[in-house]
Task: inverse folding
């Protein structure tokens, strides 16, 4: 009996009943090379044996609670296909907004650092988008504290043929000075764990997610270190948790009184990003 996409979706919903329907649809559409609209329209598409075999493998993994991006081995970030694997944070939509904000401030010849690079998605997007905008000769650096993240980052950098210096570092310790620093650091508060998607908790690295009791571990260290690692015209761009704006304002007012700060909401209207530069 021929199996259609409609049949497969029904089977997937029954086999992976705890998986989110949108995750099932995402994995199936990516494997079949269908856009979201094509996936909805082509319900009667007949699948061959190879497609069915792959889909059944994927559905079993979804049933075990494995993240769709880890099943596929990649995630999309600002239009770039980024390799991801367990042990590396899956890129988030909000971080795309951080990159787009930073891009507006980039100039040719600048030295840029991506702290806690993970998959390298920020570095890849910055480097490739800068090329499109005619911003040349960027000196790109990507750092992380874990070897697994750095290996994944290096693979993505090679895929996109970028010249990037990859360094193992705990925030800024042991690094030099930069013109721009950008980071999506760990910022989830420990007590927010109970409200999180089990898929995230089960799959993604805790070091890349949690920022301590108040979610501020990274920012406290960053605020004490950043002066020694930014050039006189230097700037930084950081993502943070939407409930942490007041804490950050207080921390930076105390630790970085010689910086001008701009806070920005994400597309959902939640406080999410901060931009800092030396006062003139």
Result:
């Amino acid at each position: 009996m021929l199996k259609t996409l409609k049949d497969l979706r029904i089977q997937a919903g029954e086999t992976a009943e705890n998986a989110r329907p949108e995750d099932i649809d995402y994995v199936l559409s990516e494997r079949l090379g269908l856009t979201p609209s094509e996936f909805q329209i082509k319900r009667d598409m007949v699948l061959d044996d190879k497609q069915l075999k792959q889909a059944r493998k994927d559905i079993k993994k979804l049933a075990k609670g494995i993240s769709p991006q880890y099943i596929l081995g990649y995630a999309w970030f600002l239009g770039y296909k980024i390799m991801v694997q367990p042990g590396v944070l899956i890129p988030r939509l909000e971080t795309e907004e951080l990159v787009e904000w930073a891009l507006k401030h980039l100039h040719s010849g600048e030295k840029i650092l991506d702290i806690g690079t993970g998959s390298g998605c920020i570095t890849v997007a910055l480097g490739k988008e800068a090329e499109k905008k005619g911003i040349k000769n960027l000196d790109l650096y990507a750092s992380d504290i874990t070897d697994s993240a750095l290996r994944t980052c290096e693979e993505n950098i090679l895929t996109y043929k970028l010249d990037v210096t990859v360094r193992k570092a705990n925030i800024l310790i042991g690094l030099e000075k930069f013109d721009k620093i950008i980071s999506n650091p760990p910022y989830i508060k420990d007590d927010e764990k109970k409200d999180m998607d089990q898929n995230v908790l089960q799959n993604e690295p805790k070091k890349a997610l949690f920022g301590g009791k108040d979610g501020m571990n990274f920012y406290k260290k960053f605020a004490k270190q950043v002066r020694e690692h930014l050039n006189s015209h230097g700037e930084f761009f950081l993502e943070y948790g939407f409930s942490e704006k007041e804490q950050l304002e207080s921390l930076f007012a105390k630790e970085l009184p010689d910086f001008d700060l701009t806070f920005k909401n994400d597309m959902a209207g939640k406080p999410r990003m901060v931009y800092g530069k030396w006062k003139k």
Summary: The mean pLDDT is 92. The domain at 86-278 is CATH 3.40.50.150 (Rossmann fold). The chain has two domains: 5-65, 86-278. Residues 187 and 241 are 6 Å apart (CA to CA).
